[in-house]
Amino acid sequence: MESGKEQKEIFIRCRERILKRLDPGKELSDADVLQEIDSVLLQAGKESFLSIREREYLRKALFDSLRGMDILQELLDDPSVTEIMVNGPSRIFLEKQGRLVRWNKQFSSEERLETLIHQIAAGVNRVINEQSPIVDARLKDGSRVHAVLPPASVDGPILTIRKFGKKPLTLEEMTRIGTLSREAAGFLTKLVRDGYNLFVSGGTGSGKTTLLNALAMKIPAGERVITIEDDAELNLSRTENLVRLEARNPGTEGDLEISIRDLIRASLRMRPDRIIVGEVRDAAALDMLQAMNTGHDGCFSTGHANSAADMIKRLETMALDSKMTVEAVRRQIASAVDVLIHLERFRNGSRHVTEITEVLGYEEDTGRVTLAPLYRWKTEGGKEGLVRCGELTNVRKLKKGTPPAPPKGPGV
User: Fold this and answer.
1) Angle at the Cα of 245 (from 136 to 275), degrees rounded to 5?
2) Distance of alpha carbon 357 from alpha carbon 101, whole angstroms
3) Residue 351 β-bridge partners
């Protein structure tokens, strides 16, 4: 083959032939698709000389375009890539080792990129079109997907994929890579096991979901855990008594919306020991706070904020959508949340816990929620890290400890 241009033309020609040969009404296995690809490549080899390397490249590229994630499959298979950003068909960026770089490949057309977005949405029963041009979804491997189509996106279809490791990070591993100190990890482990209500805050990409997952791994065995998310991302495979709930946007075929608020209310009837809300970003914050205040100790959630103090203000703002008074909302927050954990993403791409703050309660004189720092990120003498600066004073909760093993016997 003489040039990349000729290879691209052969790819397009082969792909069109395969699509004509595949029966859309028949369920085909990957082996069936590969058989059709091999047959078409054999024909293409008679029309243009193809080396063994070129044939193998085209075989994988064609399969990825039909059954995988098209040209992005290569990036999804690369464990060092943590985020993929597609700004139209010809501008693809990726995050690798905390740094953004532009990729040297591109989609052959805007239509191929748009087709891929439609396939992703359909795979999780979501719809994206001109009337509803924004969608959140996930891939089979758990990667988080956000897509926007024209007219909302000016320069063509936009696709952002945040990858999660196949094996979720533990607190011990996060200690090893410097996300938090060993002492702080031990402290958080005790909080989880003793049933404190924890709230994780931070900016986009700071590692909130990763930390939430690591904290949930410390829940004692034998407890019933219910997770509530917009898109199911938490990986709690070690939890035996686990219920996973996922919200749903209203569909074009009459599907009714299932909101985070709906799921929180439903979870209270499922005999939960722990309720984990992946993220609160609206009036569902009040339902979460009320769940924490109805005897369900050891609940977790996350939210976007610039600091632990800012997270309290954001919770106020979100809960006020429910038409409660400011005082009532602040009392709910002070009674529900025990400890705030704040994460930040540094300029070098690393992620760190920079604050662990105790919620002391509601102060009658000032009408405010009072906070007390327990750990803070400090830089002194050329060294930086999470340093203890206070002692936990909250003794309002009875410490749950590790529950006894369930009794053995028939019917148990």
Assistant:
1) 115
2) 36
3) 345
pTM for this entry:
0.77
pLDDT of 372 reads: 96
In a domain, 405, yes or no: no
Residue 275's pLDDT is 94
Q: Give me the phi and psi of 371, to 5 degrees please.
A: -125, 155
Q: What are 111's two structure tokens?
A: 């239509």
Query: Are residues 113 and 227 part of one domain?
Result: no
* Tokens of residue 262, six digits: 């709906």
Residues of the chain with pLDDT under 70: 1-5, 7, 23-27, 250-255, 322, 395-412
Task: Indicate if the alpha-carbon torsion angle 334, 311, 354, 195 is positive or negative.
Answer: positive
CA-based end-to-end distance of the chain: 68
CA distances from 6 to 60, 100, 119 (A): 17, 31, 28
Are 360 and 370 in contact, with CB atoms under 8 Å apart?
A: yes
Is there a contact between 111 and 104 (Cβ–Cβ < 8 Å)?
Answer: no
Residue 188 CB contacts under 8 Å (≥ 6 apart), including other chains: 171, 180, 198, 215, 218, 341, 356
Please state, in angstroms and rounded to a whole number, the distance separating the CA atoms of residues 39 and 366: 77
Residues 6 or more apart in contact with residue 160 via CB below 8 angstroms: 83, 84, 85, 86, 145, 146, 147
Do 361 and 331 belong together in one domain?
yes
Q: Which of 69, 106, 102 is nearest to 94 (CA)?
A: 102
* In the block, residue with structure tokens 């009036």: 283
Neighbours of 406 (CB within 10 A): 10
3-state secondary structure 17-37: HHHHHCCCCCCCCHHHHHHHH
Residue where a domain stops, chosen among 67, 96, 120: 67
Confirm whether 293 is domain-assigned. Answer: yes
pLDDT tens for 173-194 read 999 999 999 999 999 999 999 9
- Residue 285 sits in the same domain as residue 187: yes
Same-domain status, 224 and 314: yes
Cα–Cα distance for residue pair 235/166, rounded to 1 Å: 9
Report helix, strand or coil for 380. strand
103 is a domain residue: yes
Q: Is the peptide bond before 151 cis (omega within 30 degrees of 0)?
A: yes
Q: Are 340 and 311 in contact (CB under 8 A)?
A: yes
Q: How far apart are CA 95 and CA 407, in angstroms?
A: 49
Q: Identify whether residues 199 and 158 lie together within a single domain.
A: no
Domain boundary among 67, 86, 111: 67
